[in-house]
Amino acid sequence: MNMMAYVYGWIVLAMVVIGLAVYRQRVTRHDDETLHLAEREAALLTQQAAVGRKVRKIDLWGKWFTVIAIFYGLALLGVYLHGVWVAGAKLPG
After folding, report:
1. Domain residue spans in the chain?
2. Which of 20, 38, 47, 66 is deepest in the core (most CB within 10 A)?
3. Per-residue confidence at 70, pLDDT binned at 50, 70, 90?
4. 3-state SS assignment for residue 50
5. Residue 90 DSSP label
6. Quick one: pLDDT at residue 93?
């Protein structure tokens, strides 16, 4: 059985996970982690809230794609190992 199409699918999933990690890093690169509470810093508050919402959404998608990629990779490994085991169990003939 040719599994290369499935392997390419797993590679795409892994690239999506890596892309989300890079995107998250770029979003938070210039993030101000200081807590601003003063009334005169209202613009900073709204900016921090917007960045926080964006990061939470990226994290949610990143977690889901990471879990999917791990289970998909483990399933591919299981199918591959099963195929090797079955091929090794055949009697030469």
Report:
1. 4-89
2. 20
3. very high
4. helix
5. S
6. 58
